[in-house]
Structure formats: C-alpha cells, structure tokens
Amino acid sequence: MGALVWLLWPGDLRWLDNPEAAVAFFTALIVWVCTEFKQAFAEPEFAKFPRDIRLSRELISLHQNELRTLLKDTDLWSFVDSIQYSKCYRLVNRRDVGEFTFLDEVLEQKAEDFFVSLGALAEFIAANTAPEQIAGGLMTGFKPARYVTDEEYERLRQLADQANSLASNAWDTLEAIVLVTRKRCPDAFE
Predict the structure, then answer these.
(1) Tens of pLDDT along 51-82?
(2) Strand runs (DSSP E) across the chain, as ranges?
C-alpha cells in the first residue's frame, strides 16, 4: 500500500482523471482492506508447537489401536489382558505429573475432559477387579473365573455394565479430541 501511494500519489487529485492509475490504486486499496479484515476476524491458526504435534500423534495412534480396542470394541465383562489396563494407568499418570499437557488451549481443554473420563474408568477398574492368572497370563475382568452365587454373579454383571458405560464415555471424549486435533493440528495426521 505504501509503495502504491508513493508511486501513484501526485501532489494534487488530478490522478483521478487517469483511469489506469485510479483502477490500480482502488483495487490495491480494496484488496488491502479485505486482507486486513480477514486477518482481524479469522480464527487464530494453531501454533505449531512440536510438543503438541508429538502428543497429538500419540493420541491418534492410541485412538486407532489400543484404546479403540479397550474402550470401544471390548465388552469389559470378559477378561482383558492386564497390560492394556496398565497402559491406561500409565497414561493417566503421565497426565497427572504434567508430561501429557498441550500448549494449545483448545486441545488442552479437550485433553482434560478425556483424561478425567479415562481416569474415572481406571479408578473403577482398579477398585472393582483384580488380575487373575488365566491361560498363563494375567487377565482382568468382571466375569468370575470360578463358581459364584447368583447374587454375586449379578453384582459383577452390574459392575461390568458401569465399566462399559465409563469406557463409552472415555471413548466419546477421545473421539472429540481427535476431531479437534484434525482441525487444529493437521500436521499430526501426516
């Protein structure tokens, strides 16, 4: 804009009689004003923090693999390898010690929702189950490995339903953060 004013602005307003100069000046003026308004009202772009990209990639990988299996595809009534629950505990612990925090405020808020729901599931599993030796490995589940009374069986079934509900909630919040990540951090999907 400064170059146009400097090059096209004579000492008087006779330049308005020159159609080429007027068209060039007003076109540049309109483009400049539109650009300024677009930048002023545009949603701020995601600051590409390397840490946020790394954490986003890790969450996307968990979303596509381990957490999808545990939170979405598995009925928690059945036995699950205890290592999968251990991964959830470690993930929640990493969040608690500040290792898994985003610098972007929008991603951080979504991550907070996810880790609260994943923590609730992890606490529920830890409080209501215990690993058992099954088929040569440690497995965790609500399904009894031995004979129990009908009342105990029904109580365990209700606990499993609560665990499934908590897992569904954690899955929904993970889906939400992945959707936001797709918009705010497209580099994480490369």
Answers:
(1) 898 999 999 999 999 999 999 999 999 899 99
(2) 80-81, 132-134, 137-140
Task: In whole angstroms, give the CA distance from residue 1 to residue 142.
Answer: 71
Query: Of the candidates 190, 187, 180, which has an alpha carbon nearest to the alpha carbon of residue 50?
Result: 187
Residue carrying the six token digits 């365990």? 156
Query: How many Å is the Cα radius of gyration of the chain?
Result: 28
**Cα(62)–Cα(83) distance, integer angstroms:** 14
pLDDT at 144: 85
Instruction: Please tell me the distance from the alpha carbon of residue 28 to that of residue 90, in angstroms, as a whole number.
Output: 57
The tokens of 21 are what? 């100069």
Beta bridge partners of 140: 80
Q: What is the pTM of this model?
A: 0.73
